[in-house]
Fold this sequence. Notes:
Elements: H1 4-17, E1 21-25, H2 34-44, E2 50-54, E3 60-61, E4 64-65, E5 79-82, H3 86-99, E6 103-106, H4 117-133, E7 136-138, E8 145-147, E9 152-153, E10 168-172, H5 175-187, E11 192-197, H6 206-214, E12 221-226, H7 232-244, E13 249-253, H8 267-271, H9 274-282, E14 287-290, H10 293-305, E15 314-318, H11 321-333, H12 343-353, E16 363-364, H13 366-371, H14 373-384, E17 391-395, H15 410-419, E18 426-429, H16 438-444, E19 452-453, H17 456-475, H18 489-496, E20 500-501, E21 507-509, H19 511-519, E22 528-531, H20 534-544, E23 548-552, E24 566-570, H21 573-590, E25 599-603, E26 609-618, E27 622-629, H22 634-637, E28 640-643, H23 649-657, H24 661-665, H25 676-692, E29 697-707, E30 714-716, E31 720-723
Parallel strand pairs: 1-2, 1-5, 5-6, 6-7, 10-11, 10-12, 12-13, 13-14, 15-16, 15-17, 17-18, 18-19
Antiparallel strand pairs: 3-4, 8-9, 8-11, 20-21, 21-31, 22-25, 23-24, 23-25, 26-27, 26-29, 27-28, 29-30, 29-31
Amino acid sequence: MQDNNTSRRIEGVRALLNPKNVAIVGASDRPGNWAANTFRSLTRHGFPGKIFPVNPRNETVWGQKCYPSLSSLPEPPDHVVVVVPGKAAIETIREAGRAGARSAQILSSGFGEGGDPQGIALGEELSRAIAESGVAVAGPNCMGNMSVPGQMMSVNDDRVTELTPGPVAVFGQSGGVVMAIVRAMRGRGLYPSYGLTAGNEIDINVADYIRYFAQDPQVRVLACYIEAIKNPDDFRDACATAQKAGKPVVALKIGGSEASRVAALAHTGSLAGSLACFDAVAGPLGVIRVDTLDEMVETTEYLAHATPPKGTRVGAMTFSGGLKGLILEAAERNNIELPALDPETTEKLTQVLGVGTSLGNPIDAGFAALSSAEAYFKCVEILQADPNFDVLLLQEELPQVARANNKIENLKTVDKMVASGTAKPIAVLSMASYMYSDFTREFRALMPHLPMLHEVDKGMKAVRAAGVYGRQLARGNAAPQRMTARPDASVVAGLVGKADVMEDGRRVLNEASSKKLLELYAIHSPKESVAASADVAAAVADSIGYPVVLKVVSPQIQHKSDVGGVLVGVKDAAAVREGFARIKSSLAQHAPNAAFEGVIVAQMVSGGVECVLGVQRDPEVGPVVMFGTGGVLLELQKDVAFGPVPLSLEQAREMIASTKVSKLLAGYRGAAACDVESVARAIVALSELTHDMGDQVESIDINPFVALPNGQSAVALDGLVVLRAK
């Protein structure tokens, strides 16, 4: 749902890329200054509108009249490039609003990007000025923009010699990175129509660019560099818009370091690196995260020229046994399936290639296909018809000069085969990366339906990324079907009201209250009750039946085993009384300032597999759910998977399948198989709880969550709910 401010910014992007004129505030003849560089770049690329230098200190600049202010221009400014610093930049935005400008871009820095208090204060004042002016503003701390449809190049980059239209939009928070991507793609004959440097994003942000380009019919792929996401809801909504439009977002997202992780009282927080959270939320919304700029170029190359495959099953035809081996190893490294040939495929290929040909996947087509165009096309046709493949890879390398490789002409026919719409996607794969000459780029342009992938590992990763995207696209972004009934709000509020407030303002539900909240969503616990005295504990244990588990209840203690607050296998009433006293004493010894409120007496559950369920709120993408190996080795093994909030039962099953603990759940080495479906339902229920509570949940930790043998369900043996500060 777009509010008025979002709509203003999206229209601002349109104005930013298609200005009627450009006013450069801070114009100067001083050599090497940003204003002069911007003017030179605009004129070099033939910007069709007027360019107005603005500086009250100069009467002429760059050989033309210089104006003292925006209000003195002969026509209202449309787009304003701001090169002046600090307070002057802020006043320029106010003046731009009064003069009727639609958009502006602030190249100057010093508005809080370094974290200094003065800069932060200037950034806040700039935000207020933007809101007052009504002007859509890119930056500050950016480098300008490239818009081929608008015939505008305000970025000073002499290495971009001409504005060539293409199916890609590149944007991001680092001007240097954005232009590096633009140049790399251009070198491959993949021409971005847009290159936008977003800077600090005080106003227009990545989500606005995503929304805008999702509706641009000329753009097929959105390639972006993201350092930080300021509004999780806005970002998710924008990605959903792009997914609905069938526009893949290829994102290089930084922030996977230890320093990027948030502190949390629950175990979940120490496991949730920001990239894992980003993938959990953005992946189902059609965002393809890559780790390097090379991977971004390769993945964009595929998606700009071919329809996404329906999955990640790859077939390949090579002319080299060595390449066949490289493909096999790259597939294993990158979790790519190379299915066996269908028996009918094998039979047909044998008729074409002869009995002695190696017919595994990848297929080493050998000299038969090399020496005969007819045999080559027949092999391609047969492999495309194989039902075991989602996409087909063909070995080739484009020539740098004419007549250097005669068989390369075969690819023109293959391109026509794909263009007919009856064939599954085909991509061309080279052994290694190589340079393109002008001839290469011209030749490459003749095959618009064939991705030309470089180097085995990069190429295979690109194919897998496209396949994952294609599978997600087929699934769609409809809201998951609800599984649990929403509980009475007053009951939830009553439990939340019992939370203990920590020093930092966060609120913690003790284990008993946490489990009651989970129970409202059908996440069950063993029989248990809180006892404030030894005698009551013994009476509770008698009613439950032995053996039992005793656990300390204290608002200051989240991890009970750290203070000797857990006893298992307690066999009779006398042992319960003795255990009660021991836990109380141990708490006083390890945490003398912690309040002792009694113990939980719980039914002891034996057998099954210990898992962990959790929720963690990431500062950039919001809450995510977690599943993995539980118990005391949780943080050591870190066998976990993350998913969005809310999620579907199918997504929960996929989370389980992606972990090592899934093998234990299936029955490892003769052990009984566990109730996996109950675990999947609990994951969904936890996501629905988090979704229902909106911004309240900081983290949830259910460890261990024991999956019992089939038919016996699964139970939460411990639970901790941490709520955000009010």
